[in-house]
Structures are given as C-alpha cells and as structure tokens.
C-alpha cells in the first residue's frame, strides 16, 4: 500500500495540489496548519478523526459562499492520476468541496486504488451499496481560455489532501 500512497502523492503534486501523509493522531495539527478564515465541513468517517468546533457543519448557502476552507472525506482515489472521488449526499460534501477557495480532502490510505479501472470497480461496489452520485476531481479546476492558466474558475483555487496512513 505504501507504493500506492507514494504514487498518489507524486501524481497529485504534479499540479497545484499539496499532500500531507499523517497518522490519525496527527490530524488536528495537520488540519490546523491549513485552516484559515471561515471553514465548513462534512462529517469525517475515519476512526480517531473529527472536525474541530470552529468548522461549521451543515452549512447554509451563505456560510458556503463565505467559507475560505471546505473539509470533506474523499475516496476512493486513483494513484496513477492523483484524483479523488467526492461523494454526493445529504451531508453536502460535494458542495463543501466546490464553493470554498480551498478544498481540504481527507483520504484513508487504504482507499487509494492503483488505476482508474480499480477505482471504477470500487465506485461500482459503493453504487451497489447506495451511492447515487460522485465527482472525480484532480486538483483545482483550471482554465487557460484567456492565456495563462487560472485556477478556481469552476471550484476551489487550491486543493490540499490529507492522507491518513495506518500505523
């Protein structure tokens, strides 16, 4: 699995995405390092990890518009592409990942799949268990329509992935 995490990190950081590899007991400090301004978040389903009190859960549309940081769980991920899957659902992870300037994606190392084919197989299994919608994201959105590439035209301008490694 360590090879998958390394490959994911290499692929993701080829663009303007940053990746931290940590253990669950280091999560609070790692998140504090990237939190600034108003933050919104979706529940994190990882053992030993939770959102701090100053991160708004179940944000209103106004709170989403005003948020600088959005924290969501993601997975599976694709090592070869540095992509993550943001699942849609009642908890609002998709909106929370798109509206704020920075998306902080929290990913279990065990959810990193080697290839897109492997990730599609995993997504298929989740669809069979009730998943109805998801977005495959590879870093912040970018456009070069006006010359040089501009990030954040259709989503966050920066993405920070926190990979939770097993001990």
Structural description of this entry:
- The mean pLDDT is 90.
- With 167 residues, the chain is of the alpha/beta class.
- The relative contact order is 0.24.
- The chain has helices at residues 2-12, 27-34, 61-66, 93-98, 116-128; strands at 17-23, 39-41, 55-57, 69-74, 77-78, 83-87, 102-108, 112-113, 134-137, 142-143, 150-151, 158-165.
- The strands form 3 sheets. The chain has a 6-stranded parallel β-sheet with strand order 1-12-7-4-2-3, sandwiched between helices. Strands 8-5-6-9 form a 4-stranded mixed β-sheet.
- It has a single domain, classed as Rossmann fold (3-Layer(aba) Sandwich).
- 26% of the residues lie in helices and 31% in strands.
In short:
The protein is an alpha/beta fold. Helix content is 26%, strand content 31%. It is built from five helices and twelve strands.
């Amino acid at each position: 699995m360590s090879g998958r995490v390394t490959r994911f990190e290499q692929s993701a950081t080829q663009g303007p995405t940053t990746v931290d590899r940590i253990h669950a007991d280091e999560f609070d400090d790692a998140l504090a390092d990237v939190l600034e301004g108003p933050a919104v978040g979706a529940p994190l389903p990882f053992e030993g990890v939770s959102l701090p009190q100053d991160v708004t859960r179940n944000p209103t549309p106004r709170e989403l518009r005003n948020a600088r940081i959005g924290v969501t769980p993601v997975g599976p991920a694709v090592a070869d592409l540095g992509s993550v899957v943001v699942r849609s659902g009642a908890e609002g992870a998709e909106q929370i990942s798109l509206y704020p300037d920075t998306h902080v994606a929290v990913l279990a190392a065990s959810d990193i799949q080697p290839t897109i084919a492997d990730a599609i197989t995993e997504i298929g299994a989740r669809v069979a268990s009730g998943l109805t919608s998801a977005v495959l994201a590879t870093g912040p959105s970018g456009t070069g329509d006006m010359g040089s590439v501009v990030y954040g035209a259709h989503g966050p301008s920066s993405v920070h992935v926190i990979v939770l490694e097993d001990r």
